[in-house]
Amino acid sequence: MSVTPDAAQSPSAGRRFRAYTTKHLDELTARAGLAADERLAVRAVATVLPFRVNSYVVDELIDWDAAPDDPIYKLVFPQADMLPQEDVSRIADLLSAGADRKELNQAANQVRATLNPHPAGQMDLNVPTTGNEEPIPGIQHKYNETVLFFPKQGQTCHAYCTYCFRWAQFVGDADLKFASSEIDQMVEYVRSHPEVTSVLFTGGDPMIMGEGVISKYIEPLLEIEHLEAIRIGTKALGYWPQRFVTDPDADDTLRLFEKVVESGKNLAFMAHFSHPNEMAPALVQEAVRRVRNTGAVIRTQAPMIRTINDDAATWESMWRTHLRHGMVPYYMFVERDTGPQDYFAVPLAEAYDIFRTAYQNVSGLARTVRGPSMSATPGKVCIDGVTEIAGEKVFVLHFIQARDPELVGRPFFAKYDEKAAWLFDLKPALGATHFPWEVPPEGGGSNGLIDPTRL
Q1: pLDDT in tens, 338-363
Q2: Per the database record, which ranges form the Radical SAM core domain (predicted)?
Q3: Spatial separation of the C-alpha atoms in residues 75 and 95, rounded to whole Å
Q4: How many whole angstroms from its chain centre is CA 170?
Q5: Fewer CB atoms inside 10 A, N or C side of the chain?
Q6: H-helix or E-strand containing 93?
């Protein structure tokens, strides 16, 4: 598990982790050239939505000469116009007046309540229950094959993305947070559900945990015969590659990965990269090499985000770079209907054009990627294209994964809408009265699948 010389000589390679939070925000945004009123507005946004960055991102990834327009800066630093102006002004006034924490939290919570903190039925549809109908904490089971587990010690990140759809995990409200340290309960749930073939550790970021903690969650799962894969959802490769190279437990962590692979399970490292600049440092390339050498498969994914990666050249570069380093392009997501979606969302028609342009410029080895995909309440819905059928312009879509397994792989159609940015902005096409996952209106009618008589 040797470290390559270039990575070892990186200025950040041997540094201890240092986090920057809202108390450092004014200093850092001043470095980006923001005026006093602009910095106050950013602080107001950060009162509502979480902010955290670290020394590696600040020193190695952000081009401060290009800030505040640098894409990595936008990726981690709140923007003044991410929230409605009236909300920002109200909280900025409170900050200027020296309001106490209680008053600020009250104002922030009022804004948070309007931001759909748990989209896609996470709270009311995804949480399984015990035989006594008690919710099982820290577990989501939306799709038959996959259980999501939120380990308590992994519910933070090395840095927070401004567009994070799980922002509610990080704002200090226990009612909004998924987490559990009940290892036995999680293992028993998986053991008693033979349809479950994979467990996804998510958060937050599971790789914020040390090896001694994460191994306690993973090792008991290796004894479950019907479990085929263990997934780890993480942005640590992009935000703190030291975790796999120079951190004190880096080698122990890699040995744990080897143990998973040697047990006969697939270890899927679900790596979140939002921009090709995150792959530039030698340190992250070395981290990728070391993780792959354990036998883990690294699959890459990210949402399309306005002002950060909303152009085809960025995605083409990102997929090519990932392929070159042995990773598998996996998903292009659509920004979810939560938090500052209106600020970051790209219309579906535009997202599809960007995806298609990038897709047609990469080799077949990179065309493992799927998208643009919406992780919505009924499932993962992929936009397959825009076409005209019987004189009507439509989106062609299908379910990659679905709450109802019968919907998986079945195409359906929606009226073309150049402004639509989410599944629920769409309307059925070709005379359909409802989409396949919806309850038909009184009197029945078409369910959104194609009517051959209209071709």
Answers
A1: 888 889 999 999 999 999 999 999 99
A2: 141-365
A3: 24
A4: 14
A5: C
A6: helix 85-96
